[in-house]
Amino acid sequence: MIVVKQLMDHCHRFFGSQGDLYQSEDADILVAVYPATRKRGWWTYATLELHKMGATEYLAYSYQFEQRMITHLARIAAQVIRQWESQSTRLESGSVFSLGDTIVEKSVLNHMVLTPAYYEEAGLEYYTNGKDVIRFMMLHAIADSEAKFLEQYGLIALQEWLAHSGVDSLNVTRTPAI
């Protein structure tokens, strides 16, 4: 629990707000939710206990508080835990998770792709307490068509396509670019 508190403090320093803790039945992990601030106009959802399985925590974002984001993050955490327990490998950039449902109501986005924490200030992406080194990675909501494009052409091609199309990847109700 000490590392969880340290991670919460680390996130608080970067996000500028205190996180509220949630626990989901989908995975036995804690998720901290940091509200939007004037400096950061989006809500941030952070896993806090996945570092035990591969030294990585996951971040997800939305412009409004969405309870379903907590559920989806916990379900992704459960997939990460299963992979760690069966293969002792951590997931890397470009890994795709099927949500089984849309990310939020009135959205067609039903997958999430893992990337480095692009939207964060330098220094957030790694935390160390002198013993543990924990990486933070970001999950972007994408549509089925975008997940298929990613599978066929790779993460860099998808990122270039989304950037060229002017996609705001924090907008979880956006229309697919592909």
Keywords:
178 residues; alpha+beta; 8-stranded mixed sheet; 4 helices; 31% helix; 26% strand; globular
What would you note in describing this structure?
The protein has 178 residues and is an alpha+beta fold. It has one domain (2-164). Helices cover 31% and strands 26% of the residues. The protein is built from 4 helices and 8 strands, in the order H-E-E-E-E-H-E-E-E-E-H-H. It has helices spanning 2-15, 67-87, 144-153, 155-164; strands spanning 20-24, 27-34, 43-47, 56-62, 96-98, 111-116, 126-128, 133-142. Helix 3 crosses helix 4 (155-164).
Counting DSSP H or I runs of 4 or more residues, the number of helices is: 4
Radius of gyration: 15 Å
Termini separation (Å)? 43 Å
Largest sheet: 8 strands, mixed
- From the spread of the alpha carbons, the general shape counts as globular
Strand content: 25-35%
Low-confidence stretches: none
Helix/sheet category: alpha+beta
Number of domains: 1
Portion of residues within helices: 25-40%
Oligomer: single chain
Look at the structure and give the mean pLDDT: 91
| H and E string | HEEEEHEEEEHH
**What is the β-strand count?**
8
InterPro entries: SUFU-like_domain
Pfam families: SUFU
Protein name: Suppressor of fused-like domain-containing protein
Domain Suppressor of fused-like: 29-174
